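Annual report, structural modelling task.

Input specification for the fe (ii) ion complex:
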Amino acid sequence: MSLIEWKDEFKLGVPSVDHEHQELIELINSLGELMAAKGSYQVVVESLGEIYAQISGHFALEEKVMRDSHYPLYEDHKADHEILLDELLDIMDNVEDDGSYDAGALATGLDRWFSEHFGTHDAKLHHHYHR
Ligand SMILES: [Fe+2]
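The model returned the following structure:
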């Protein structure tokens, strides 16, 4: 089960950021596969933990790129990163509290969570680099 499809329009043109975006999508999709294979909830919690760790590192890189280039929408974009990380923690807490997971709800939640940021904040960043 592919949760997120890589699209070329996700490309920022900053190789390190693009590379990490692709890796993140792969990681999220491998969670989709774990769920499709009815992986235990512990395995899913572990996978979410990995996603969280990679994503916070990735956001830090994106923020550095933005700061270095004096990106005008930096504050806004960074604020959304913080919201996203909080939401991801909530998603993880829910799975942990329940001791089980709802694959459909988790897939929808993660896709919306990721795609919206990609489609808005990262897209603006993309346009900024392609002016
Ligand atoms: Fe971002």
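The first helix runs from residue 15 to 36.
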